[in-house]
Amino acid sequence: MNEINRVFGRVPGADRALLHLNETFALRQRSENEISLFALNGKMLRLIKEDVDAGPDCIVCQQMPANNENLPEDGWVLEDGVLRIPFLTKIELQKVELFDSVGNIEIRDFPGHMKGMIARRLRQADFARVKPVEDRCGLLTSALNEHLTESAEIPLVEVLGFGEGSPSMGDAALCGMLLTGRCFALGRRFKLNWYNRLRVEVRRLLHRTDHRGKNWLSFALDGRMTALQRGFFMAMARDFECADEIVVKKIAGEEIFNGRAFLIGCFAALEMIQKSLYNK
User: Fold this and answer.
1) Closest CA to 236 of 151, 212, 228
2) Which of these, 125, 189, 210, 277, has the minimum number of CB atoms within 10 Å of its CB?
3) Other residues' Cβ atoms within 10 Å of the Cβ of residue 164
4) Could you write out the three-class secondary structure of the chain?
5) Is 98 exposed, middle or buried, given 0-12, 13-18 or 19+ CB atoms closer than 10 A?
6) CA-wise closest residue to 144 among 280, 275, 272
7) Cα–Cα distance between 90 and 77 in angstroms, integer?
8) Residue 276 and residue 181: Cα distance in Å, rounded?
9) How many other β-carbons are positioned within 10 Å of the β-carbon of residue 4?
10) Residue 220: what pLDDT?
11) Which of 161, 263, 177 is CA-nearest to residue 211?
12) What's the pTM?
């Protein structure tokens, strides 16, 4: 069932997790495709247009108010599955189709085609501006392959919150590493000593990045992902060359979660996994 809202039009979907969230939000960022709200505790809630990539803690809407239309800055209350926007409208989530943002995708075989496609994409000209985060991820993966837990702290701090974008390049790359590692961990076929170390250290050092980065990293730590990311990892699990090329291109062009940097993190994780194959 789709709710019809006088401000946001048809509301075709929302993350099921929002039914259990009770918070007061303030508007902090808006565009023609997205409205980003934040609570005092840093929790993020997003309203997005339906042709944008749906993801964790978001409500999908047919339309966004025009940028020149005034919206209240404070007092957006999500309680008992209803988002109330003061003096304007409300969105009842019980009346819309709910989706689960957790992606339990099991990868059991090494995706050679996918890794090759990502490597080729990373060599293209539009990746030049994210090259600095690739170098930092390289230092982090070297540290994660060491046995000393504390060896990863400084390289990780150098990645957290680093670079341009929202989320930052560094945070997006870490999301790619975490989600890739999780999918392989669920597959239970590969040695992933680095994955749990990375999860523990990222959670411990989340305070080193901004609120948007914290939210995206928390999503990745919990295995929550966008619809496009889900399709990407499902393609990685199947590893068909034509499908891989399509989804890699889509991820690279995605600005919502800084897709180019995300691919760098995925590639860094695949490099560690592949090296473990030769070190058995």
Assistant:
1) 228
2) 125
3) 12
4) CCEEECCCEEECEEEHHHHHCCEEEEEEEECCCEEEEEECCCCEEEEEECCCCCCCCEEEECCCCCCCCCCCCEEEEEECCEEEECCCEEEEHHHCEEECCECCCCCCCCCHHHHHHHHHHHCCHHHHHHHHHHHHHHHHHHHHCCCCHHHHHHHHHHHCCCCCCCCCHHHHHHHHHHHHHHHHHHHCCCCCHHHHHHHHHHHHCHHHCCHHHHHHHHHHHCCECCHHHHHHHHHHHHCCHHHHHHHHHHHHCCCCCCHHHHHHHHHHHHHHHHHHHHCC
5) middle
6) 272
7) 9
8) 13
9) 10
10) 98
11) 161
12) 0.93
User: In this predicted model, what pLDDT tens digit does every residue of 48-69 receive, in sequence order?
Assistant: 999 889 999 999 999 999 888 8
Cβ atoms of 35 and 42 closer than 8 Å: no
The average pLDDT across 78-105 equals 94
Backbone dihedral region for residue 131 (phi beyond 0: left; psi -120 to 50: alpha; all else: beta): alpha
What would the mean pLDDT of 88-116 be, rounded to a whole number? 94
